[in-house]
Structures are given as C-alpha cells and as structure tokens.
C-alpha cells in the first residue's frame, strides 16, 4: 500500500509540473518562425488611429486573436494596455507594438501593429508611432461618427504621406448609422464610401477583411537590407534588470547579438546584449533585419543615453542620421516635490525612469521655500499630468506633492540700464512665483490654441456661450451633415487646460469632442494673484490670470481654500491680493478649547486670567505657526 501511495504521489507531482510548464507554440507548421526569412515585400507596418473610445484596443485584440498571437479563450481584454493606469481609467496612454504572422494566399506575412492613444494629451505618442509605419487604420465609431481627434489624427497621417484605410467600427450597435458616417468621411476627408470597411471589433465581424486590406492596400517598407545598418529609436522604457530598452524601426541593414552599435546623438558605443520582437510578449531572436520593428537591449542606463528619435548604427560605419522627431512643446507646467526631503533621491530616480518611457515630459530643477528641492515638469495637458503622477505612485511607490498647473507666459520688461546692457528684455514664465512685479512689466503675452469642436447642432448655443465665456474668438463653423457642426475657435491655453474639456462634455451630454493645436503667443492683460495665509504669501498657490477674471477667481479661490485647508489651533486669514490690493478674504476659524471647563466656582478673575492666557498663547502660535496644507490642495485648487 505504501509503495502504491508513493507511485500515485509521484504521478501527481509529474502532472502538476507538466501543467505548469510553458511550452512554446510553433505556429503554421512544425518549425519555429524565422522572421528574417520573410521577404521585405511581405512586411507591413501600420498603426491604428482613432478618437477616444472608438475601439482601437478592441480591434487590436481581435487582430492578435485572428493571427494566433494570443488565444481567443485567454479571457483578457485590451491586451496591449499593460499599464495599471490604463486598466483603471479604460484609456490607452502608451503606444504599444505587436508583430503578427498572417497567412495570405499561402504566403506568410509579417504585420507590425502599433496601437496608439486617442486622447489629445498623448498625440506625441501617435506622431512618434507613425514614423515607423507606411499606413494607418483610421477607425471611426459608426454610432458617434467623426470626432475632433479623428480629424487631427487624419491630418497627422496625411501630413506624413501615409496610406489610410478607413474602417467603421461598432456596426452591430442598435443606433449605428454607417451611411451617415460614410457621408461625413466623404465631406471632411474626400474618402470614397466604397473604400470604407465596416466591422464590429467586439463581435469579430469583418476582421479578416481588415487584414486582407492591410496586405493589399499598404506598401511594404522602403528599406534596404543590403545597406549599412540604421535604426530609428521611437520608444523606450526602463527594465530594472536590463537597463533602458529601445524600440526601433530598422530602416537599413541588419543587427545581431554581439554587434557593436553607436548612437548618432550621444556618440556612445554599446554592445548589443539582446534582441527581441513583441508578439505581444517578448520573443528573443538572434538577428533583426531591415523593415522590422524590434526591441534592443544594450546596457543603456539612463534617459540621457536612450534618446527618442536617435539613430543607431554600427560603430565602424558612418551613416547619415535618420530624420528624428520635432520635440513636443509642453503646454502645462507643474512643480513636483517629495513629501519629505529624505525621499528626494528616490523620487529623482523614479522621475528619470518614467521620463525614459514618456519623452514628452520636460524636467527642470526647481526649489520652493515651503516644499524644498524639487522639479518643474512640463506636460502636454492636465490628463497627461494626472497620468504621470499616478504612474509615479503605482509603478515606483513615490509619494509626490504636485503644485497647481500653469502655462508659459511671455513677459516684456520695461527698459532699464541692466536690460540695455544684457539686451534681454523678454522673459518666459511658467512658474507664478517668478512672475515680475507689475511695475517692471511693459506688456504680457499668453499662449493661444486653435480649438476644433464637433458637436450635434442641438447643443450649439450652450457651446458657443462656453467659448465666449472662456474668451474664445470664433473662426469658422462648418456643417458636417444635417445633425453635426464643426466649430473652430481661437482660445487662450490657460482657459483650455484645466476644465474646458470636462465642462464641454457636461453641457453636451458627452456628445461633443474637442481637439486643439498650438498657435503661438498673443498680447493680453495679465496679472499675478497672490494668496496670503495670515499675511504670509504662499508662492505655490499664486496664480497668473487675465485681469477681467480677478474678482471672480479671487473669490472662488479663497472659498475653495477655506474648504480644503484643515482647521488649525489658530485662526487663519485667507486673502487674495493683486498688486498689493486685497480683493477677497475668508477666515478659517480655529479649534476652540474651553479652558474654563474645569472651573466650578470662585471669583470671576480666575476665569478672566485663564482666557487671557489662552489668548496670549494663540497670539504666539499665530506668529510662529507652520500651517500645513494637504497635497490635494495643489492639484485641485484651480479646478472651478
């Protein structure tokens, strides 16, 4: 019996070990796939571009399933959205790549897919991804129709001379109207309705037609496999075991493990330690050739070494660098500080690693009398700022304090002897604490954007009122069809970055969409509003705003601070001042302790003595009190 029991136990252990072992799947035959044997003319590189929530990630899932990259029964949704913040918010914030093998007319084709974000704050991810592609899938919701970011992404792809495959998604919905949306595509982009594919990514309808269209309509990469090795780095991220990993599009030649490569930007030399393709998980290979998209690890250790837009080449070969990317211009700035200065080194390392994965963020060293040493970071929008700070917490365990967001203003100073000698009378200010005194300012300019709004005509009046309230100037109004209108407004960036998008969605019941482009600077009447707590200015809460909003915003700001700041043992006077004049005030009452509760009788002088001692103590506390502000104050204080 004991021998039989031992045999059964061994069999259970063997079965358990077999079940837990990952057996590599060999698709399309008994031999593993050799990507280098696929001819250049059977490679297609493409991106999926669309507005938010039009089904890009769902379509990517179906393409992965249809080509065998993942199992249909895996139970995973939005496989390429790997970040925790993407899963929690339900949006794509990072472009992700996957290499697919598809059999078409008996031949193996290599399809390199890049799934891109749809929100305007992450348009930099889209533009970088398009540099590695020869075509795009323009995905449009058959229910909602063309949206603002659809227009922006179309012209972004059109400007890069990429072929566009128009695809209507969600045709299975009850209210879907493909004919109406095809009419919009014809009106706005001159796309023939016969060229539009109609699919349902959720139900898997029409996926094979999309794959066939990718092969039939898109051209192969314009690459040379026999030439000198050149590769464009269009993305990177940090791995704690391998350092900085670079995602590259190989334009010419080939690269193998062990080769010595150099950077055209930093001139540094590296040995190639690892090569892999993403399917969508990493699959190690010994060699990558022209036309492919792959991952290279060569012991880069920082964001300064792995530069987005850099060209890699072999050390002993001189090559002409590939065209890089136009640097993204930050639109919103905020200060980031550690909760305690002992966490400074940890937060600095976390920011360096995250900036490697998000090259649109600019970093400059900053300091604050209240918060100590920190950084001034530039972002493409408020959502970009919130996602970045959320990733700092989730991925690196940091606990940062964020100051209120702001934009960059141009200030021209009055001529003085020092300015005449230095010939520097123009300042660019993104930190309100550095805004000059009003007596030194000759004139101010604020950044402007050209905003595109697409809305049903039933909400037209409310949206025009919103734009006028935000100091917008209408440039054009175009009827897309009988129900939808496209408005173009010139708007101050400071009125857009905070809550314009949220307010627009609220008054339009979620149907209106918004996108904007930079327009440079325009003359404006700007002032600096200071916030005083018990007579002491708090630089982190100061705001630069238009003079017409001083009274309204000052009142709202002190009321907001009265609700946010926790009560102290002393009374706090919250004041908003402009050019030395108090325009709004609120008082935060102190906690009251009844020091006379212990009295049970006696002369009234005992009571008066205790109250006098309490008043003197509170006066002393008020003079030396260190008023602590919660970190939520700095990100919420400017939300109206």
From TrEMBL:
The gene is LOC108556438. InterPro entries: EF-4, EFG_III/V, EFG_V-like, G_TR_CS, LepA_C_sf, LepA_CTD, LepA_IV, P-loop_NTPase. Residues 41-222 form the Tr-type G domain. It comes from Nicrophorus vespilloides. It is found in: Mitochondrion inner membrane. Its EC number is 3.6.5.n1. Belongs to the TRAFAC class translation factor GTPase superfamily. Classic translation factor GTPase family. LepA subfamily. Belongs to the GTP-binding elongation factor family. LepA subfamily. Its main location: mitochondrion. It catalyses: GTP + H2O = GDP + phosphate + H(+). This is Translation factor GUF1 homolog, mitochondrial. Keywords: GTP-binding, Hydrolase, Membrane, Mitochondrion, Mitochondrion inner membrane, Nucleotide-binding, Protein biosynthesis. It is a peripheral membrane protein. GTP binds at residues 50-57, 115-119, 169-172. Promotes mitochondrial protein synthesis. May act as a fidelity factor of the translation reaction, by catalyzing a one-codon backward translocation of tRNAs on improperly translocated ribosomes. Binds to mitochondrial ribosomes in a GTP-dependent manner.
């Amino acid at each position: 019996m004991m021998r039989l029991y031992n045999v059964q136990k061994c069999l259970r252990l063997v079965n358990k070990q077999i079940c837990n072992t990952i057996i590599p799947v060999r698709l399309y035959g008994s031999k593993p796939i050799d990507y280098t044997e696929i001819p250049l003319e059977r490679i297609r590189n493409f991106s999926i571009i669309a507005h938010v929530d039009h089904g890009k990630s769902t379509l990517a899932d179906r393409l992965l399933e249809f080509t065998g990259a993942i199992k249909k029964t895996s139970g995973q949704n939005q496989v390429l959205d790997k970040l925790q913040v993407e899963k929690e918010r339900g949006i794509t914030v990072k472009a992700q790549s996957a290499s697919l093998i598809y059999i078409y007319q008996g031949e193996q084709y290599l399809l390199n897919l890049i799934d891109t974000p749809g929100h305007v704050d992450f348009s930099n991810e889209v533009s970088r991804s398009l540099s590695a592609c020869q075509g795009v899938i323009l995905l449009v919701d058959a229910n909602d129709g063309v949206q603002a970011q659809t227009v922006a992404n179309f012209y972004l792809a059109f400007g890069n001379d990429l072929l566009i495959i128009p695809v209507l998604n969600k045709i299975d919905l009850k209210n879907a109207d493909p004919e109406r949306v095809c009419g919009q595509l014809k009106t706005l982009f001159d796309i023939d309705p016969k060229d539009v594919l109609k699919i349902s990514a959720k139900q898997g309808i029409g996926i094979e037609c999309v794959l066939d269209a990718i092969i039939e309509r898109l051209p192969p990469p314009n690459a040379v496999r026999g030439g000198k090795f050149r590769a464009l780095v269009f993305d990177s991220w940090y791995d704690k075991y391998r350092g900085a990993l670079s995602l590259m599009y190989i334009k010419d030649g080939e690269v193998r493990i062990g080769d010595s490569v150099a950077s055209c930007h930093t001139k540094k030399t590296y040995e190639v330690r690892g090569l892999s393709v993403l399917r969508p998980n990493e699959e190690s290979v010994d060699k990558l050739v022209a036309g492919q998209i792959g991952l290279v690890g060569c012991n880069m250790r920082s964001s300064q070494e792995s530069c987005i837009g850099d060209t890699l080449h072999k050390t002993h070969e001189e090559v002409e660098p590939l065209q890089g990317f136009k640097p993204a211009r930050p639109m919103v700035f905020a200060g980031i500080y550690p909760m305690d200065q002992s966490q400074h080194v940890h937060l600095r390392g976390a920011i360096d690693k995250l900036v490697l994965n998000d090259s649109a963020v600019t970093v400059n060293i900053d300091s604050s009398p209240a918060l100590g040493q920190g950084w001034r970071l530039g972002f493409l929008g408020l959502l970009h700022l919130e996602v970045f700070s959320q990733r700092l917490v989730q991925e690196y365990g940091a606990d940062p304090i964020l100051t209120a967001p702001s934009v960059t203003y141009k200030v021209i100073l009055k001529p003085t002897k020092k300015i005449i000698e230095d010939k520097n009378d123009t300042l660019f200010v993104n930190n309100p604490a550095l805004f000059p005194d009003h007596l030194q300012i000759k004139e101010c300019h604020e950044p402007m954007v050209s905003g595109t709004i697409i809305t049903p005509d039933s909400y037209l009046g409310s949206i025009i009122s919103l734009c006028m309230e935000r100091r917008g100037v209408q440039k054009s109004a175009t009827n897309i069809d009988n129900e939808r209108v496209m408005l173009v407004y010139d708007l101050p960036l400071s009125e857009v970055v905070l809550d314009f998008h949220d307010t627009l969605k609220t008054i339009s019941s979620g149907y209106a969409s918004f996108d904007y482009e930079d327009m440079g600077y325009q003359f404006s009447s700007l002032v600096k509003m200071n916030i005083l707590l018990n007579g002491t200015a708090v630089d982190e809460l100061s705001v630069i705003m238009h003079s017409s909003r001083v009274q309204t915003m000052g009142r709202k700001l002190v009321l907001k601070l009265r609700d946010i700041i926790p009560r102290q043992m002393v009374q706090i006077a919250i004041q908003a001042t402009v050019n030395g004049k108090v325009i709004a005030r609120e008082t935060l009452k102190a906690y009251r302790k009844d020091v006379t509760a212990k009295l049970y009788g006696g002369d009234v002088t005992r009571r008066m003595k205790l109250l006098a001692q309490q008043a003197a103590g509170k006066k002393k506390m008020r003079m030396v009190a260190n008023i602590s502000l919660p970190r939520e104050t700095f990100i919420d204080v400017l939300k109206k």
